[in-house]
Specification:
By secondary structure, this protein is an alpha/beta fold. It has one domain: DsrEFH-like (Hypothetical Protein Ychn, Chain: A, 3-Layer(aba) Sandwich), CATH 3.40.1260.10. It has four helices and five strands; from the N terminus they run βαβαβαβαβ. The radius of gyration is 14 Å and the shape is globular.
Length: about 120
């Protein structure tokens, strides 16, 4: 087993269905990181948390980009993590039971921990 630490990238997604391009880009970048054998974490905040509601991302399409449904499916199958801002879902009256099963609700301290453990951060 290698002693080399796996590189990690954190990608903040702060846009939901209202901006299909910015909603899709975090998952495209996350998939690129996974292909490069890096750990990839997408943290959804603001209206981005709507993408974690079961079924929502299936209806988001950005011109010139692959369907978000396809990107999320690949991201999750390849081991990407989706973390969702707890205060943001509460503000939007989204119950945790409504979220995609593999997502994890988190608060600010966990988001900061993820950033501090990463090699880079991207924000959309």
């Amino acid at each position: 087993m290698s002693d080399q630490k796996t590189e990690k990238i954190v990608i903040f997604g702060t846009h939901g269905p209202e901006d299909p391009e910015r909603a899709t880009l975090p998952f495209i970048m996350g998939n690129a990181a996974l292909i490069m054998e890096s750990e990839a974490v997408v943290i959804l905040q603001g209206t981005g948390v709507l993408l974690a509601v079961e079924g929502c991302y299936e209806h988001v399409f950005a011109a010139g980009l692959p369907p978000l449904k396809e990107q999320v499916k690949i991201f999750l199958e390849q081991g990407g993590k989706v973390l969702v801002c707890t205060p943001c879902i509460k503000e939007r009256q989204i119950d945790e039971t409504m979220l995609i099963k593999t997502s994890e609700p988190i608060a600010a301290a966990r988001a900061i921990q993820e950033v501090l453990e990463s090699n880079g951060v991207i924000n959309y």
